[in-house]
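Q: Convert this sequence to structure tokens.
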Amino acid sequence: MEHASSEKLKEATTPGRAPGRPRDPRTDGAILSATLQLLAEDGAHDLRMDDVARRAGVGKAAIYRRYDSKDQLMTAAIATTVSEIKIPDTGSTRGDLLELMRQAVAVYTDPTMAGLMPGLIAAVRRSPELAKAFSEGFLTRRRVALSLVLKRGVERGDLRSDLDLELALDVLGGPLFYRLLVTGGPIDEQLAAGVVELIMRGFGASGPGARRPSRTGDRK
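A:
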């Protein structure tokens, strides 16, 4: 009995767990969905709790029972946009990279994400909490997936043994961000294929400047 009482006390005092009636997951979803919609429409700076409550069809008190601040609400909403990233294994590094780039194209062309990203980039500069959520949730998971494929490419002999991993990751992600935030150019299959081709030509084992295994008797 004492152990059970301790467990109940622990649950009751756990941060983020409201006492009393359990929260309605439908209300949770409506709040987060409304937040994402408004972020995409108006940007992070102009997001208002009153607007979120109105769009979600809930009272503002329902939001504050769940989130202490606007940044905390935005952080939770952004976390819902991070989908599971499947690491492909097509049998070739080119095919694996192309599959991951296609996944990225699908994310960046999603209407909500396309509208959300510009305002979000501006917002993370003023909010460490938001910046951490965006980096760890959205950026880091994609870079980890790409890193695994690139490292496997080196092991397969498809990519150079002296591959600059961070540079390769920037080359893979940079064009999508640039078109989304700066030029407004198409983010499509052609872009995905072009970026992968850049990687294979620039970092491929037979590409320019690639190191070749030293042979006995070669001059140093």
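The chain has two domains: 23-73, 93-203.
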